[in-house]
Amino acid sequence: MALLGPISFHEDGWDWDTGFPAGDWAHFASYTNRVRSFSYDGKLYDEEGFTEDHLSPDVPAKLLYYVAINHGAYLLPQNQKLRWRASTDNDLQMILPFLSPALREVDIEAQWEVSSSATSRLLRTLHAALPHDITSIRFVPNEQMGRESEEVMSSALNIRRRLQALRVPLCPVNASMLIPNLRILEAEFGEAWNSDPGTFFLHLSDKCPFIEDLRIIFLDDRALTAESICPLLRCSKLRSLDLESPGEVGLQDQHIREMGNAWHDLEAFHISSRRGHASTSALPTGTPIASLVTFAQAFSPKLRKLAIYINSFNAPPFPPDPPVRFPNLEFFSVGTSPLSYSQLGQKGLIWFLGSVLPLPMNYIHSDCLSYDRSRSVFKHKEDERRTTSAVWDTLSMVLYDYRKV
Questions:
Q1: pLDDT tens digit string along 204-247?
Q2: Which of 17, 87, 164, 392 meets the CB 3.0–4.6 Å disulfide criterion with 42?
Q3: Which residues pair with 311 in a beta bridge?
């Protein structure tokens, strides 16, 4: 905006009234036609806290006149990638002049004080305004989507069949989302599949055989099972599989071998590592810690991220013989798995993990029971202590000391 003359910032926001005294509109027109990517965040954080009003709703008449004369309703007519973070209804409404017909990727988050009515209005606008050949949509409201919004979203997708990436983590997945060209899908498991994940995965493997990145969020702790995942073995192009479920999913060595044989390009694998509550069973549950050897043997060396709910109470007394180690694993999470409180058990666990995990890996990721479901386990932030289990954090430090010795 410096091309248009001095615009100052004061306590209430940007001063649009006294700006643009001798704006270089020719230069500005050249600039707006060159822009291919634009990002806006309604709440940016600096050293003094949150800074608001980075765009003013009271855009001066000169700018509105320029837009109307040169591009009709679009400020950046050739922009192809739009990232928008709205914190208020006004923030969300200001996206409208940026919805140009050249857009190919849209990433929108409604945060903080954005109302459901403003979100619904924007969805109806997106239905009409987004290009039919758009290839990527990410839409994250600040609360669960209602029935009306879900219907608008489904209707919008029905006429945009060139989509390759669809990320709508708070929207239940339905048949309209299973677009043949789809490579990336993130959604919530919904009622459309009669609580049967196997039926959904079967339809997905039929309609989207080239899916590469899949994240499905299950709300029912009894829905997902190891057997229901079997249809996904047909999706040989998978690179990332993230199945978020609060319930128990027991993986046996046979399941692990079948998955490793089917997904040769898999780089990230997560299944139900973060339970919704602690187990009240007398016996520990979860994938046996010894099965990490099967993972290392069955999966491709391309595997870099792994997150599973493990049973750490039965660690083998000796390292695997012959030695087995993950060649390229960079991230390992045990989610909300409990840790044996036996000192002897913890020593055996450290010994075993030290022999199976790659030498550069000195940290085991974990989560507290009150985790944020909207945050993928792979988006873990090590500096946020509230997302880390203290007992596993302590074990990580012991493992680090063990590795140094």
A1: 999 999 999 999 999 888 789 999 999 999 999 999 999 999 88
A2: 87
A3: 288
- Using CA atoms, how far apart are residues 16 and 325, in angstroms rounded to an integer? 61
> In the structure encoding, which two tokens stand for residue 322, read together?
């012959």
This prediction's pTM? 0.87
Reference 273, options 305, 297, 304, 301; nearest CA is 305
φ/ψ bin of 49: left (φ > 0), alpha (ψ from -120 to 50), beta (otherwise): left
53 Cβ partners below 8 Å, 6+ apart? 12, 13, 14
Gap between the Cα atoms of 403 and 405, Å rounded:
5
303 contacts 266 by C-beta, under 8 angstroms: yes
| pLDDT tens for each residue of 109-155 | 998 889 999 999 999 999 999 999 999 999 999 888 888 889 999 99
* 322 cis-preceded (ω within 30 degrees of 0): yes
Q: How is residue 196 written in tokens?
A: 């049967």
- Answer whether 328's CB lies under 8 Å from 359's CB: no
Contact 287, 255 (CB under 8 A): no
